[in-house]
Amino acid sequence: MFHSQNILGSDTGSPMTDVKFKNGFQKLDFESREGMNDKCCLITFLITVFLGLVMLIVICSIGKPNELLEISVLNGYPDNDIMHESGDFMSINQVEKDKQLGQFVSIQYNADGTVSDVIGDYFTRFCNDFITHIWMMFVLAIIALVLGFGYIILLKYYVKQLVWISIILGITLIFLIGAALIVVGVMLLKYETWKVTGYGIIAAGAIILIIGLIAILVIYLSRFQIRLGVQLMKEACNALRAMPFLPICTAVLNLFEIICFGFFVLLIIYSLGITTEKNFYGIKIKTPSNTSYYLIAVGSVIYTWIVLFATGCNQNIIAGAAASWYFVHKEDGDALENWPILSTIKRNFLHHLGSIAAGSLIITIVNTLKRISEWATKKARKSCCCVMLLSCCCLCIMKCLERIIARVTENAYIIMQIKGENFWQSTKQAIYLMLRSFYQIIVLDKVMGIISCIGTMFIFIFILFFSFLIIRPDFFKIADSSSDYIPSLSWWLLILLSVIIGLIIMSILIDAFSFTVKSIFVCYFIDKEMYAAHGQLSQNANASQAGFGPGEKIMKSDGNIEMNIIKEG
C-alpha cells in the first residue's frame, strides 16, 4: 500500500468492504446470488461454438486433402512431354521405355522388396516391444503424480527455506560472476594487445556487482512482501491438502483443450484440401485456395476463444474453491462444505459462465490483434525501415496489453467468485486492487517463479532417475540386459515419454497451486481491507444488519496470516 500510494497517489479506488457473509460472518453468502451474469456474452459464445462446429463439418465434407499438390499433365504438349528442371522436355513415353529396358528402375523393384521387408520387420518389432512395455509409462506417471503432490506438501514446511536459499544462491552467483570478470579483466591488462578488452570486461564485472548490490537492497526492502508470499504459499498448501481433487479439474480442462486442438488441426488439414488448380509449364498442380486461409483464420479465432473459455472455467473453479476454503475459519470449528469443488462448478454453471465468456472474448480479441501485428511485422521486413519499426512497436504494445488484460481478468475472476458480481464490475475492482497492491503482486510472482522452477527441476531429476531404474535396471546392475523384462528396442522412447508426461503432470499441479496462491492473496487482501475499514466497528449494528463488513471472524483470519509472518520474520 505504501509503494502504490507514493507512485500513484490516491487514485487507487476504494477498499472493498461489501462482501456478503452469512451465519454471523462464518461463510460467504453464495445462496443470495441469482440469475446468470453477462447473458449476452454467453449466448454469443454458444452461437460462435455452434457456427464453428457447422464450419468444421462442412469443411470436412468438401475438403479433399488427399488431392493437395496433385499433379496432372495437360494434353497440349506432343507425346505428353513435360518440362524437366533443366529446361529440356522429357517424354513420359520415354520414361516408360526406360523402365522396360531396366534403365529406370525403382528402389523397391531393384532390391526385390528386401529393404522394405527389413524396415517393416524392425518397425513391427519396435511397436510390439513398445506396446508390451507401455505399462511402465503408467507406473511412472503415478510416481510423477505422487512426487508432485509430495513436493506441494513439503512446501508447507520448507517453502521458506527454499525461497531464501534460492535468493541467496542467486545473489552469490551474481557476485561470483562479477568478481570472476574483474579478475579476468585484470589479468588481460598485463598484455598490451588485450588492454581494451580487459577494461571492457572489468567494466562489465563492475556493472554486474552493482546489479548485485541493487538486488540486495531491493530484497531487503521487500522482505515483508517475501514473507507474506511464503505464508500465502503455506496457506495454498493447506487448501490443496483440504481439496486434493482440485488439480483433477485442471487436468480435465487441459484434456478438453487438447481435444479442441485436435479438431483445429483437422480443420486446418481439410481447409487446405479446398484446392484450386494452377498451371506450371503445362502441369496442373492443385494448391490451397485463398478461401482455405480465410477459413483457417476464422477457425483459429474460434479455437482461441474456446480454449481461453476453458482456461477461464478452470481459474474460476480454483478461485471459487479457494475463496470458500479461505473464509471458513477452522479454528472456531467452522467446517468446509462437503463438496466445495462440485459446489463451485454448480455456481459457475448457474451464475458465471457469461462472465467467463466475456473475459475470454476480450483476451481473444487482443490475441487476434497481436497475431495480425505479427503478420504485419513479417510483411514489413520487405518494406522500408519506418514501416517495420511501426509494426514492431504495435506488436510490442499488443503483447504487453495481452499480458496485462490476462492478469486483470484473472483477478476479476477471483473477485467475481468472492462477491458474485458480473465481469465488468469485478474487472473495475480488480484494476483498483492491483493498483493498491501491485508491488506485492510483483514480489509474489517472482517468489512463485522460484517455486515453479525448483518444482520442475525436482520432478525432472527424480522422474528421470526412476525412468532408468524401472525401464533399464541393467544400467544399475539390478537385472541382466538379456531379460525379457527390459525393452531392448523402445526403451529410449519410453523414457522420453515418461519424462514428458511427468513434466506435464507437474505443470498441471503447479498451475493449480499457483492460481490457488493468487486466489488466496486476493482473499487475504480483501480481508485485510475489510478489517481496516470495519474491524474497529464490529459492534456496529448497522453494518451487521446490512450484511456487510467483517466481525471477529475476519479479524482472526487476517490476524492468523499476519501473526505467522511476524513469528517467521
How would you describe what is shown here?
This protein has 569 residues and is mostly helical. It has 2 domains: 507 residues, no CATH class; 31 residues, no CATH class. The chain is 74% helix and 4% strand. The strands form 3 sheets. A 3-stranded antiparallel sheet has the order 3-7-6. Helix 2 packs across helix 9 and helix 12 crosses helix 14. It is globular and about 75 Å long. 32% of the residues are buried. The N terminus and C terminus are likely disordered.
Give the gist of this structure.
It contains 16 helices and seven strands. It has helices at residues 2-8, 39-62, 92-101, 107-110, 114-132, 135-188, 195-221, 223-242, 246-272, 290-326, 340-380, 385-419, 423-471, 491-534, 541-546, 552-568; strands at residues 21-22, 27-28, 71-73, 81-83, 89-91, 275-280, 283-288.
| Biggest beta sheet attributes | 3 strands, antiparallel
Q: How many individual β-strands?
A: 7
The computed structural class is: mainly alpha
Could you tell me how far the N terminus lies from the C terminus, measured between alpha carbons in angstroms?
19 Å
Integer average pLDDT: 78
Strands of the largest sheet, in order across it? Answer: 3-7-6
**Low-confidence parts, pLDDT < 50 over ≥5 residues?**
1-11, 73-99, 103-118, 536-560, 562-569
Q: What's the order of the H and E elements?
A: HEEHEEEHHHHHHHEEHHHHHHH
Radius of gyration: 31 Å
Q: Quote the beta fraction.
A: under 5%
State the domain count: 2
Q: Give helix % range.
A: over 70%
What does the overall shape look like? globular
| Helix run count | 16
